[in-house]
C-alpha cells in the first residue's frame, strides 16, 4: 500500500509550498482535502509533483493565500493495494480585525 514519507508545514518560496513525498507501487493517485472537504485545484492552489521510481515528490502550491486558506490539509494517496493519508496545519494569514461598532461617535 502507499505510504506518506514526508509532509511539511507551508514554506514561502516564490509561492507557499506544502512539500510532500509519497511511496507506492503501483504509483498511487494523489488528492488533497482542506478541512475534510475535497480540495479543488485552482489558479490559486495547485499541486505539482514528479515521480522517480516508486516515490512521488512535490508541493501543494499556494499563490498569495489569505486567511480563507488557513486550516488542515490532508494528502490522500490511493492505489489498488490501499490508501494512506496524513494531515498538516496550514496557517497563512491572521483574520482581519472584526469591525467594532460604537468606537467612534459623531
Automatic annotation (TrEMBL):
GO terms for cellular component: plasma membrane. InterPro entries: Ig-like_dom_sf, Ig-like_fold, Ig_I-set, NTRK3. One of its GO terms (molecular function) is neurotrophin receptor activity. Gene3D superfamilies: Immunoglobulins. It comes from the Eukaryota. Pfam families: I-set. GO terms for biological process: cell surface receptor protein tyrosine kinase signaling pathway. Residues 21-88 form the Immunoglobulin I-set domain. This is NTRK3 factor. The lineage of its organism: Eukaryota, Metazoa, Chordata, Craniata, Vertebrata.
Amino acid at each position: 500500500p502507499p505510504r506518506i514519507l514526508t509532509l511539511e508545514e507551508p514554506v514561502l518560496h516564490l509561492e507557499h509550498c506544502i512539500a510532500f513525498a509519497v511511496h507506492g507501487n503501483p504509483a498511487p493517485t494523489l488528492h488533497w482535502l482542506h478541512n475534510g472537504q475535497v480540495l479543488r485545484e485552482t489558479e490559486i492552489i495547485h499541486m505539482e509533483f514528479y515521480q522517480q521510481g516508486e516515490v512521488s515528490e512535490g508541493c501543494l502550491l499556494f499563490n498569495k493565500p489569505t486567511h480563507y486558506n488557513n486550516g488542515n490539509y490532508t494528502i490522500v494517496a490511493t492505489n489498488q493495494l490501499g490508501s494512506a493519508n496524513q494531515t498538516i496545519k496550514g496557517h497563512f494569514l491572521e483574520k482581519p480585525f472584526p469591525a467594532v461598532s460604537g468606537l467612534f461617535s459623531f
